[in-house]
Amino acid sequence: MQTQNAPTLVTGATGFVGSAVARALVTRGHAVRVLARPGGDRRNLAGLAAEVVEGDLTDAASLARAVAGCRYLFHVAADYRIWVPDPEAMIRANVGGTVALIQAAQAAGVERIVYCSSVAALGLTKDGTPASETTPVTEEAIVGLYKKSKYRAEQAVLDMVATHGLPAVIVNPSTPVGPRDIKPTPTGKMIADAASGRMPAYLDTGLNVVHVDDVAEGHVLALERGAVGEKYILGGENFLLRDLLALIASVTGRRAPRIKLRHEMLWPVAVGAETLARLTGIEPMVTRDHLKMAKKRMFFSSAKAEAELGYRARPARAAVEDAVAWFRANGMVP
User: What is the pTM for the complete model shown?
Assistant: First the structure.
């Protein structure tokens, strides 16, 4: 058992969700330690009172150094891309890295772990109604390497809870938007493109939108009130993409796109974009996995987190406003 003032480790704090989690913890009075890759982009650590330990999810020795003496662990880091040139690298980071980090944390006597999974690891309903933590899912039904990697990592954490008494709580954020999306994430890029007038058409799909700072608050609530071995969806409002783009247009004063594309129209474009990406290493604008995912309405309910954690999410408009304001302030939206 670690002392009460022992540090709380946050992985992924240089990224979008992780930086919000680290800030929420500092606000709560935690002594925060972060794991950061050598030479990585550390803009999101600016102004954050945190100890930095250099390392990487694929470097077991650095993980042991990072968790040494820590009381709590928030594992938020992940390789979040729809397309990658080396699929095995994503599996090594998201699955192997998760297992190695959590094993190191348990060996170091970490008291409690909050693992940031994703709604990508959860099932979807056939009729498009909001899914929950218990909606049935199989790996075969999951589309895309990133989503499969998050499913495998989540299953590994649940297995360690059941077989090794791992003191872990799992949170499943939906689609966070807001400030400090420096890469940006795929959803952040979509918002920036729409806010810049670079999105003249859309596909018929649906997603759940939540402010990144509400997701961060949900992580802290999971530490304080979550039950070991349980999963909690941290979401906000469900939107058809058409309606989300209309909201972005309302925030920016632009006209919302009116052209709805059919999925099959873009299939040859996706095949060509993937072929070009394999030759150049440049991420494609659209992939076949994008199109397969877009056929599903990824709607979710946060009722369990609301009832058991006291979780609440602000209106999605506030999340979009904050995202657009941050993108403008950082030159990503004119």
Answer: 0.94
Q: CA 184 to CA 276: how far, in whole Å?
A: 22
How far from 42 is each of 46, 47, 54, CA to CA, in Å?
7, 11, 11
120: its two tokens: 């990508």
- Model confidence pLDDT, tens digit, residues 145-181: 999 999 999 999 999 999 999 999 999 999 999 999 9
Report how far residue 173's alpha carbon sits from residue 300's, in angstroms, rounded to the nearest whole number.
Answer: 10
First to last CA, the chain: 51
3-class SS at 226?
A: coil
- The residues pairing with 300 across neighbouring beta strands, listed in sequence order, are 131
pLDDT, one tens digit per residue, over 63-78 is 999 999 999 999 999 9
Long-range contacts, 240-246 (Cβ 8 Å, 24+): 240/204, 240/205, 240/206, 240/297, 241/202, 241/203, 241/204, 241/205, 241/206, 241/207, 241/294, 242/202, 242/204, 244/207, 244/209, 244/316, 244/320, 245/194, 245/199, 245/202
What are the tokens at 163?
Answer: 């077989």
Report how far residue 124's alpha carbon sits from residue 131's, in angstroms, rounded to the nearest whole number. 6
Rounded to whole angstroms, the Cα distance separating 237 from 316 reads 6
Interval 181-213: pLDDT, tens: 999 998 999 999 999 999 988 888 999 999 999
Q: Could you give the domains of the chain? A: 8-178+210-237+301-307 (3.40.50.720)
- Axis crossing angle, helix 316-329 with helix 241-252, rounded to the nearest 10: 50
Other C-beta atoms lying within 10 Å of the C-beta of residue 144: 18
Residue 19 main-chain phi, psi, to 5 deg: -70, -35
Contact predicate 32/216, CB 8 Å: no
Contact of 216 with 310, CB cutoff 8 Å: no
Query: Are 150 and 93 within 8 A, CB to CB?
Result: no
Say how far apart CA 208 and CA 190 lie, in whole Å.
14
Amino acid at 69: G
